[in-house]
Each structure stands twice: as C-alpha cells, then as structure tokens.
Amino acid sequence: MRQLVSILGRFFCVFLLLLAPAGALAKQKILVIESYHQEYAWDKSYIEGLESVLGEHYQLTYFQMDTKRLPVTRHRSRGELAWQRYLDVKPDLVILGDDNALKYLGSRFAKTLVPVVYLGINNNPRRYHVHQRHNITGVLERPLIKRSISSIKPLFPNDLNRMLILFDDGTTAKTVLQEMFGGDTQLRVSGVDVELRLISRWDTWQQAVITAKDEGFDAIAFGLYHTLRDERNKYVDANEVLKWSSQHTPLPPFGFWDFAVGKDKTIGGLVLFGYEQGRIAGELAHTILTTDVEPHTLGPKTAEKGRYLFSRSELERHQMTLPRKMANKANFVE
What we know:
The chain contains 11 helices and 14 strands. The protein has 334 residues and is α/β, with parallel strands linked by helices.
C-alpha cells in the first residue's frame, strides 16, 4: 500500500510539472487595430515588421477599420467596432496602426491602464490627446517629400524646375499639407517649384496626370491615391489607380513610399518603408510587456530617415540613369 501511494505521488508530481509550463508559457495577447485594411501594401509591410519581432512570442489579433475604402461617414462607427473588439479580446497590449485609429480611439485608451503603442502617425500626437499619457507611446511617420525632391534633381540633366505632387484627400494627405507644407499648396524646394494637389475624384486625378506636361511640369509624383472615388462615389482600387497613372503619365513618375515603386508603378526615390514602422513598434511593445517601464518614457520614436529604392524597368522606360553615387546606395525592386 505504501509503495502504491509512493507511485501515485510521483505520478501526481509529474502531472503538476507538465501543467506548470503550459500556464507559464501562455502567450500574452496583443490587439492590432489597423486604420486601413490588410490588402493595403502599407499594412502588409508594417504587419510583417510587427510579426518579425512579436509573432513567435505573442498572440496577435487584428481588427481592420478599413477607412481607406469606406466613406468618412462610417469611420466613427468603425472606431466603435474596434473598441468593442478590444473589450472582447481583453488584450495585454494594443497597437494602433496609423492616424485614424489613434484619432478615433486614442483618447479612450488614454483613460485605461492598458499599454498602447501607435505607429505610422503623421499628425502631432497632441492633436489626438495622447501626448504624455503614461500608458501610450509609439512611432511617428514623417514622409520624406522635401528630401526626396532634392535627391532626384541629379536625374534631370536639363534641370528639374517644376514638379507636381498628387495626393488623395485622405487623413494622411491633409496632415502632410498642414504639417509639411504649412497649408500652402505651392512652395519652392531646393530650387524646384512644387505644387501639391489633394484630389477626391478619380476623373479629376486622371485629368491632372494627362495634362501635367502641358501645364509645364517636368516631373510628377504619386503620393497617396487610396481614397479616390468615381462618379458614382464608388471606391477606386488603389492598384488600378497606380497602374493607370504609370501607363498614362507623359512625365517621369516618382513615389514616397516603398509600395509605390516597381514596374507599372513609379520610378521610386527616397522612400519610407512600412516594415520599419512595424519593427520599431514591435520592439516597443516587447519592451513594455517584459519590463516595468512606463510606455510614455520610451517615445515617441521616429522611424528611419528613408532609403533609396528604384525600379529598373521604370528607369529604363523613362530613359533615366542614376548617378553612380546614388546607384551604389540604392536598392532595386527588379
């Protein structure tokens, strides 16, 4: 009998040891609230960056607000659905991707204890009432428009005098206009006269692309083009916009984000990478969840200063050659 009790005791101890690691190794939950949608190349890129840091150690759940494709009248209700998802998931940490998620949810999370990391924020976080909130930090996105314009001048042997930049009229575009251009649609950058146009209609965009050369511009840039709508107020697929614009522009086209570079896209330039936004945000999240640090003491951070990324096929199509020094620093998509 004593031997039986001893054997049962050993089995019970082994059983407890088997159970303990399962509880100890339970993955903490992270809810990622995307302002946009996972088919959007920017989201794909920063999610890849997030998962490169967090994917192995945490349970990631996603909610897509889809504010690029849905009309503005539905954005607030999408924010409410995102908040409900937060209440349902009860995550250990929340990641807010891009301005609209922070705009509609930031002040609510500021009243909670849950740690929050934002990424891809173009606006000043103060405008979203999260500045210096103890539980919130993140990564800022600063488009490299002025530096990019300066960097591509050497590609124009006959000089670059005038450049047209086209954006949709989404949240990011309006922030770029205010934060980087001071609300002015025309300015001079490194000797180049630059005009910035925010466009909501697809037919207006098409007209601007086709007539740019006749208006005296030497180059064109496609910034963001993800909220354009047709004459029936239907969302126009962003990939179709970029492909059509690339095929019909009479001018060499440039871009400011990595997803806009490639065959039947733009030539490229000095661009931002969503992957870096995600990677840095992931590192912040991991630090918060594995230490006692208060989130606000970690940031906000600013991602990398950009990298040269070019399309060989588009350079060839527009008969442009990179200076040797630039080519040695550049990455190429094909």
